[in-house]
Amino acid sequence: MGTGGDRQDEIDTAAAAWAARLGGDPLSDAERRDLDRWLGEASAHRTAFEEARSAWDEMGRLRFAPGALRDDIVPLPAGARVSPLPTLGRRRARWPRVAAVAACLLVLVGGLAFWAGDPVVLVTADYRTAPGEQRLVALSDGSTVALGPASAIAVDYGQSTREVRLLAGLAYFTVAPAGGGEHRPFVVAAARGTARALGTRFMVERLAEEVEITVAEHTVEVALAGPTGVRSTVIVAPGQSVRYGGAGLGAVHKVNVERATAWRRGRLIFDDVPLGEVVAALNRYRHGRILIADRDLASRKVSGVFETEASDAALATVVRDLRISVASLPPLVTVLY
Fold first, then answer.
1. Where among 219, 236, 260 does a domain terminate?
2. Whole-angstrom Cα distance, residue 83 to residue 88?
3. Is residue 250 domain-shared with residue 286, that is, in the same domain?
4. 25, pLDDT greater than 90
5. pLDDT class for 24, splitting at 50, 70, 90?
6. What pLDDT, on a 0 to 100 scale, did the predictor assign at position 51?
């Protein structure tokens, strides 16, 4: 069962999606009924929706006429200390406007997080890349990491293990084999799982709710810690892939390694892939964020070959082929519905 915070996040996300949807073409009759039904389910839905609509409207004004927000700035006396609660209290009649601007600023902060990256990752990463950037990292033992766009790793080489934590995105590892003076296993940790290798090439990718390991050379032992602490393991051979997540360790299956690693050559190749995963890949090449309004849409399948330097064209092609609609507030967010 999710926590109250998780539930509120879901409500806020749905409210933001509806607010963005209303910023596009008029709602169809079915969509209007869906919105009315969702609003009627709980007062928290209505509250979140009103705040999201206010924030969306303010962001639109800020985009076209930022000077119009000056009236919402409360001047302070010279030398005064900032005291936001008393200030808002003296202007109680203006609270709805101030709340809207506060919501707007929260969305803008979220947009900056999309732009600059997760602040936790920024602090903890030893190596990271910006959206659209690739980087080859040489580690102290002779191993290399081809870091994908919008990705980050932390390196922790100790006396018994060579560990790399994949904090975000994806990475292709070329591991220096054990031998001579090097006997420590090479382990990549991501979420609750690990991939352990000795002299091999493999890729690890953090998806929205899962982690995927794809092996190009030799073998990798993938292990996942269960909720009770019991570990499940599987051996992945060249040309195979496996995923793990909240549902546990998945089945090993064959994969086209050249296709899976095409991003290293400037291409994204999808063959009957859910739209949610396609959007996650495209988001790594954009500073703004693409969002999907509902799970049914996220599960629709996409096939195609796209250039990584043309993510806008790729998105336009997907939208056209799936016959879906778009609402956007450049450069922060684009919502597919």
1. 260
2. 9
3. no
4. no
5. low
6. 81
